[in-house]
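PROTEIN DESIGN WORKSHEET
SECTION A - STRUCTURE
LENGTH: 334
C-ALPHA CELLS:
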C-alpha cells in the first residue's frame, strides 16, 4: 500500500484554466486484474484542449467538476495487477487517455499502455503529436510524394511532425510560423519555404511563388490562414482542418465569402477535418512506425526548452502555449 498522491482536477468551470483547476490528493489504488500503476514522469500539454475543458466546450466530453485532467503521459510501471503479461515493473510506458496525465500516478488497463524504450519528453511528443500527424497525413490527407504541402503552426507540437513527415515523403513543404526564431528552426528541420506570416503576406507568397496551388494545406490555426489556404488549393487539393488555434475561444465569426463549393467544385478539391479520437484503429501501427523513424534518426522531436516543473506549473504551461510562445512540444515535468 502506498501513500496518497497528487493530481489536478477542474474544480469549477470558469472558462480559463488558472481559476478552474486545483491540486488535490488522490488515494492510492491497487491495480485490478489486467491493470498497471504508472509513475508519470512527463505530461504533454494541450493548452487549447485544456482551456476548452474549463469552458466545457469539448463536444465529446461533459465536464462535471471535479474532473481529472491531462491526456498524454509517459512514465514507469510501478505495480502490476493480476493477469498482466508482457510488461514488468520498471518498464517505460506512454498513455494517451483523458484524465490520466496531470497526476503523479495513474492506474490504467495494460492494453492502454504503449511500451517504449525510455520515459523521455521526446518519446511522449512522438507518441502523442507525432502519431496524430502521421494518421492525419496518411489517412485523411492522402499524402503522396512530389506534391506541394503547406503547414500552419509548423514549429508547434503537432506541426513539427506534419512538416517533417511531409518532407520525408518527398514533398515540397511550405512552413508557416509567427516568429523569426521558429522560422530558423523550421529551416533546420528541412522546410523548403518558411513564411513568417507577421512579416510576409501569405497570400502574396502563394500567389507569386505557387501559382499551381497547394496539394495539401494542413491547418490548425484557422482564421485568415484557413481562408488563404482555401483560396489557393490546387486541382484535387485537400485542405485539412486540424484545429483553429487563432479563434477557438472566440464567438464564431460570420465571414462574407463566396460559398465554399465555388472554391472546390471545379478543382475537385476538398476540405477534410481530422480529430484524433475518431481514428483509434490506426494508432498502434502509427506509434510503432513513428518511433522506428525516430530511432533511425529520420525524425526529430523538438521539445520547447522552457521548463514547467510539477503540477503547480500546469496553468503556466497552458498560458505559455496559448500565447503562441512555444517552439516544439510543451511538456510538464512531474
Ligand atoms: N485534430 C487533432 O486531433 C489535434 C490533435 C492535437 C492538436 N490539435 C490542434 O492542433 C493545434 C496545435 O496544437 P499543439 O498542441 O501542437 O499546439 P502548438 O502548435 O504547439 O501551439 C500553438 C501554435 O499556434 C500558433 N498560433 C497561430 N496563431 C495563434 C494565435 N492567435 N494564438 C496562439 N497561437 C497561435 C503559434 O505558433 P506560430 O507562432 O508559429 O504561428 C503557437 O505556437 C491546436 O489547435 C490543437 O487544438 C488537434
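SECTION B - SEQUENCE
RESIDUE ASSIGNMENT:
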Amino acid at each position: 500500500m502506498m501513500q496518497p498522491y497528487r493530481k489536478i482536477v477542474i474544480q469549477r468551470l470558469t472558462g480559463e484554466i488558472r481559476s478552474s483547476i486545483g491540486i488535490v490528493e488522490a488515494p492510492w489504488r491497487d491495480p485490478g486484474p489486467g491493470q498497471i500503476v504508472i509513475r508519470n514522469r512527463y505530461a504533454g500539454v494541450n493548452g487549447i484542449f485544456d482551456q476548452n475543458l474549463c469552458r466545457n466546450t469539448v463536444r465529446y466530453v461533459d465536464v462535471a467538476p471535479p474532473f481529472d485532467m491531462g491526456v498524454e503521459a509517459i512514465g514507469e510501471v510501478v505495480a502490476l495487477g493480476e493477469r498482466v503479461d508482457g510488461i514488468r515493473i520498471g518498464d517505460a510506458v506512454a498513455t494517451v487517455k483523458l484524465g490520466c496525465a496531470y497526476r503523479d500516478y495513474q492506474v490504467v488497463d495494460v492494453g492502454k499502455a504503449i511500451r517504449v524504450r525510455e520515459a523521455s519528453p521526446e518519446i511522449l511528443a512522438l507518441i502523442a503529436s507525432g502519431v496524430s500527424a502521421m494518421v492525419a497525413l496518411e489517412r485523411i490527407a492522402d499524402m503522396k510524394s512530389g506534391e506541394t504541402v503547406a503547414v500552419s503552426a509548423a514549429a508547434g507540437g503537432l506541426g513539427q511532425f506534419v512538416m517533417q513527415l511531409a518532407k520525408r515523403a518527398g514533398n515540397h513543404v511550405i512552413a508557416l510560423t509567427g516568429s523569426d526564431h521558429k522560422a530558423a528552426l523550421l529551416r533546420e528541420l528541412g522546410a523548403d519555404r518558411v513564411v513568417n506570416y507577421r512579416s510576409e503576406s501569405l497570400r502574396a507568397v502563394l500567389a507569386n511563388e505557387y501559382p499551381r496551388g497547394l496539394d495539401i494545406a494542413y491547418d490548425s490555426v484557422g482564421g485568415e490562414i484557413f481562408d488563404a489556404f482555401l483560396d489557393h488549393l490546387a486541382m484535387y487539393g485537400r485542405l485539412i482542418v486540424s484545429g483553429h488555434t487563432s479563434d477557438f475561444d472566440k464567438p464564431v465569426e460570420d465571414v462574407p465569402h463566396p460559398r465554399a463549393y465555388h472554391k472546390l467544385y471545379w478543382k475537385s478539391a476538398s476540405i477534410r477535418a481530422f480529430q484524433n479520437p475518431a481514428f483509434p484503429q490506426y494508432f498502434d501501427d502509427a506509434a510503432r512506425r513513428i518511433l522506428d523513424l525516430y530511432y533511425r534518426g529520420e525524425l526529430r522531436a523538438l521539445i520547447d526548452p522552457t521548463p514547467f516543473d510539477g503540477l503547480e506549473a500546469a496553468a503556466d504551461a497552458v498560458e505559455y502555449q496559448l500565447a503562441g510562445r512555444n517552439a516544439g512540444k510543451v511538456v510538464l515535468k512531474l
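SECTION C - NOTES
The pocket of NAP is lined by residues 46, 48-49, 129, 132, 153, 155-159, 177-179, 182, 220-221, 242-243, 245-246, 274-276, 321-322, 324, 326 (CB under 6 Å).
The chain has a mean pLDDT of 97.
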